[in-house]
Amino acid sequence: MAHYYGMDLKTLRKQYSPVVGQKHHISVPINPNLVLLPVKLRQALEPGETTVGYVNLCQVDKVEENREDPLFRCRIKFRGEDTPFLNSLNSPETLRSRMEQGKAALEEYLRRQRETVK
User: Fold this and answer.
1) 63 contact partners, CB below 8 Å, separation of at least 6
2) Backbone dihedral region of 80: left (phi > 0), alpha (psi from -120 to 50 degrees) or beta?
3) pLDDT, tens only, 41-84
4) How many whole angstroms separate alpha carbon 75 and alpha carbon 105?
5) What is the pLDDT of residues 87-115, one digit of tens each?
6) pLDDT by residue (tens digit) across 11-49?
7) 108 half-sphere exposure, CB direction, 13 A CA radius
8) Three-state SS string across 37-90, please?
């Protein structure tokens, strides 16, 4: 996604790491309507496998505990009528914390955009 917008994901992670106070699982704003939020979606079958996917923070309606599937700790509800839930291995608290970090990253992105326009 970042490549599509002509952005280097590695550089973006490095820029926003101090903003969110994390070295791993960093929320990355691509534009004002697209903030990539890291979410653990599966367990690794082999060491080194990727287990994290990204969702758009701007489309998340709510995060709640998953009481239907014991494997997944929470589920994400997206904005819009009749949208399905996305199951996650993260706890609801972890995802809410990441959502706050994503909002902080978005605020920093918007601040940088305002500085560029001046």
Assistant:
1) 74, 75, 76, 77, 92, 95, 96, 99
2) left
3) 988 888 888 889 999 999 999 999 999 888 899 999 999 988 88
4) 23
5) 999 999 999 999 999 999 999 999 988 88
6) 888 899 999 888 989 999 999 999 999 999 988 888 888
7) 20
8) EEEECCCCCCCCCCCEEEEEHHHEEEEEECCCCCCCCEEEEECCCCCCEEEECC
Task: Answer for the pair 56, 35: CB distance below 8 angstroms, yes or no.
Answer: yes
Neighbours of 76 (CB within 10 A): 24
CA atoms of 7 and 5, how far apart (whole Å): 6
Q: Cα(115)–Cα(5) distance, rounded to whole angstroms? A: 20
Q: Hey, what are 33's tokens? A: 């309507």
DSSP 80-118: STTPPEEEESS-HHHHHHHHHHHHHHHHHHHHHHHHHH-
User: Are the CB atoms for 27 and 98 separated by under 8 Å?
Assistant: yes
